[in-house]
Amino acid sequence: MTDFNTRADDAKSLLGDLIAAARKAGADAADAVYHESRSLSAGVRLGQPEDVESSESREIGLRVLIGQRQACVSTTDFGKEAVAALIERGVAMAKLAPEDKFCGLADASELATNAVDLDQLDGVELDMAQLLDRAKICEAAALAVNGVTNSEGASASRSLGLTAYAASNGFSGAGFSGSHSLSAVAIAGKDTGMERDYDYGATLHFADLAAPEVIGRSAGERAVRRLNPRKIESQALPVVYENRVANSLIGHLSGAINGAAVARGTSFLKDKMGEEIFAPGLDVIDDPLRPRGFRSRWFDMEGVARQRRKLIDQGRLTTWLMDCATARQLGLKSTGHASRGTSSPPSPGATNLYLSPGQQSVEELLSGIKRGLYVIEMMGSSINPLNGDYSRGAAGFLIENGKLTEPVSEITIAGNLKEMFKRITPASDLVFRYGTDAPTLLVEGMTIAGR
Questions:
Q1: Beta bridge partners of 161
Q2: What is the pTM of this model?
Q3: I need a labelling partner for 410 at 20 to 30 A (CA). Which of 37, 168, 200, 312 fits?
Q4: pLDDT per residue as tens digits for the range 355-385
Q5: Which CATH code, of 3.30.2290.10, 3.40.50.620, 3.40.30.120, 3.40.640.10, is assigned to 2-222?
Q6: Are strands 48-66 and 69-75 parallel, antiparallel or unpaired?
Q7: How far is it, in rounded angstroms, from Cα 79 to Cα 81?
Q8: Which neighbouring-strand residues pair with 33?
Q9: What torsion, rounded to 10 degrees, do the Cα atoms 221, 223, 229, 234 define?
Q10: Residues 63, 68, 73, CA angle at the centre, nearest 5°?
Q11: How many CB atoms lie under 10 A from the CB of residue 343?
């Protein structure tokens, strides 16, 4: 870790110098962001290399504040002249920017002071030959499944990133994270009767990633299972969202409780603080301090200390997701949810967000359904953020007498998120796969549009 620590210190030193120079050039206050990444990826199709990529990038972003005006500038050129021009441009832009009475740095009392090791980096960096081998094994496992007739390929990748943030209020922090991923897409059937499906894995630690054979075989089996789908008639049915698509519902919640949307009055939950919006007993948790979490970091991108929060506690909405500006607009305190790129000011965003699992297994959840729909894929999206109306294309399987039976496709599921949230029943199969996650979810009383 010595090299990593040195690079993190170098990044923080660079930002400190940038902020000092901005203050000297006329900024009342300033903050800065540093992003560095490097990655390798290898793709194969039908056993042959199809796509190999290696990328490296470094970028810095500076926010200049003069009074109640702010401007953001960024560059990938770290040369002395380029950085000087960046500062000059940022100060000039800030002087001309419109006033924003809510902009500004975090108060010193809100800043994170204790760095936390969140086990984000395992130090494993596979080379291109190893990635190609893993992709080939993954695809071969998919092709070996009886009924699989073709492949759209398999890919393996690994990446390493460093993010640092510093501000003129005294905060300075940095953190590394690495990731490993593997995926395969299989095609089953022939001619007009072909179906495709995939499987995918991504983890921060290589040791946590499923074997290539497991992911490839799963992709092939999923594709075969979808052969010969049929359309169904329009009707009202309970809908079960497989755990790898159920996270979309939690994503809609995240958007609705984003402080920026609430402050604008464009959220269907804007007047629901403290109310029971989920079924009693359900929790939705945002945990930026979860070890090996995809979005874990002990500080947000304004230097505010982060903490684990129950956004939904026993069904009740407890908080908005807020950065400093939206918190000021709402008359509240930041919740440590500021996210930021290099070329824009902070905005609120969730971290490791998930709905807590229930007590029933998926089989037990299905067993009580006489007729329903099990969704494994969703496409398109029509969500009205003002009233919560929901409509999405879907494909999956019929549920009959508690069992999955025929595959179905070309259907639309519709409802209203305010009612859907209240009718959610979770299974016990929560897997941290994406950053926003949920177990398999049953939602009663959905409208199905078919033939």
A1: 37, 177
A2: 0.94
A3: 200
A4: 999 999 999 999 999 999 999 999 988 899 9
A5: 3.30.2290.10
A6: antiparallel
A7: 6
A8: 61, 165
A9: 100
A10: 20
A11: 14
